[in-house]
Design brief:
Mean pLDDT: 91
Strand content: under 5%
Number of domains: 1
Order of helices and strands: HH
Number of strands: 0
Number of helices: 2
Structural class: mainly alpha
Distance between the termini: 5 Å
Largest sheet: none
């Protein structure tokens, strides 16, 4: 396997990682920001308050995006397996 092929597989893996993890991280960021804004406006300084809405939102997003995530990971595995089968 040449260095160019290794870089292609690594680049593809990073892109798939961002496709799979990006939406969940973005939703966690938005929910955390919204709860922090509510905390700042109401002056409630409870540190654990942000975790429950964030966990619920990420779990709901995981259920929503799971088919897309599975397709992205299966496609990546198919491309890697095809490279292995062809020898490079």
């Amino acid at each position: 396997m040449t260095s160019g092929a290794i870089l292609d597989v690594a680049r593809d893996g990073i892109v798939v990682f961002l496709k799979v993890g990006g939406p969940l991280m973005a939703i966690a960021l938005v929910v955390g920001l919204a709860v922090s804004l509510v905390q700042a406006l109401t002056q409630i300084q409870e540190q654990t308050l942000v975790f429950v809405p964030k966990i619920i939102a990420v779990f709901a997003a995981l259920l929503l995006f799971l088919p897309f995530m599975g397709d992205a990971l299966a496609g990546y595995m198919g491309r890697v397996a095809a490279r292995i089968a062809t020898g490079g």
